[in-house]
Amino acid sequence: MLNLELTRPLSVIDVQSTGVDPATARIVSLGVLKIDLDGTEHLRSVRFNPGMPIPAGATAVHGITDEEVAEYPAFRSFATALASHIEDCDLVGFGIERFGAPLLQAEFKRAGAEFTLRGRRIIDTMSIFHKKEPRDFQAAYELFAGGEAPPRSDSEAFLKASLEVLNGQLEVYEELGNTVDALNEFLHPLPENAVDERGMLIRSDGGDLVLNFGKHQGRTAKEVAADAPDYLEWIISQPDIPVDMKAALTAELATAD
């Protein structure tokens, strides 16, 4: 039973996608739990073929593979019916404000279906959690070191306090290990088929080089080199691009020529 007074229907939304950028990601799974004013619940869960490869990093999060959605329809097949289903609803979800809602809006726009966030109240349970359970330095210091954290104005004390927080985390989370490599792997896990040190390029099962970032995410580098070579040239020109990534993209451009 929902302990919340409703003035309009409420839809709880859960999306699983190909990436974390609402502008370029595609939905592969969508769950909607609609609650009417009388408390009646309507649960729908649908999978979609995103029309692009699902990166290994995304599969590692939600467990959905290309093969599992190959026979499913595209989002546009359900867009109009879905928009109608949640037309009069406020929305709820964990992380929905920054990701779920913008991604839905982008997908509806691509499908040509009428949908707007204007006038809806969006309740992000992650935001509630973060407001009630602060995730700032003071909270971290209290949890892992104990007591009042030093002020930011005291640089020396703050640096030592930062190290205390790290030591406390290593004691509490023994599974992190005690090496910098182990911490880096925990914070920045790479897909098994990563080509570069950041996982921005991956290898498909067929051996093709695939972009795992940006507006061409999910496309092979060979395809991008053929119809958007300026994009790859711009990426290669960036000063902070990893050497191995630059070499791989340069090779693809040379082949395209």
Structure report:
The protein has 11 helices and 7 strands. The chain has 3 domains: 10-129, Ribonuclease H-like superfamily/Ribonuclease H (Nucleotidyltransferase, domain 5, 2-Layer Sandwich); 134-187, no CATH class; 201-256, no CATH class. The strands form 2 sheets. The protein has a 5-stranded mixed sheet. The chain has a two-stranded antiparallel ribbon with strand order 6-7. 21% of the residues are buried. With 257 residues, it is α/β, with parallel strands linked by helices. The chain is 42% helix and 14% strand.
Arrangement of strands in the largest sheet = 3-2-1-4-5
Portion of residues within helices:
40-55%
Derived structural class: alpha/beta
CATH superfamily of the largest domain: Ribonuclease H-like superfamily/Ribonuclease H
Shape, per Cα inertia axes: flat
The total domain count is: 3
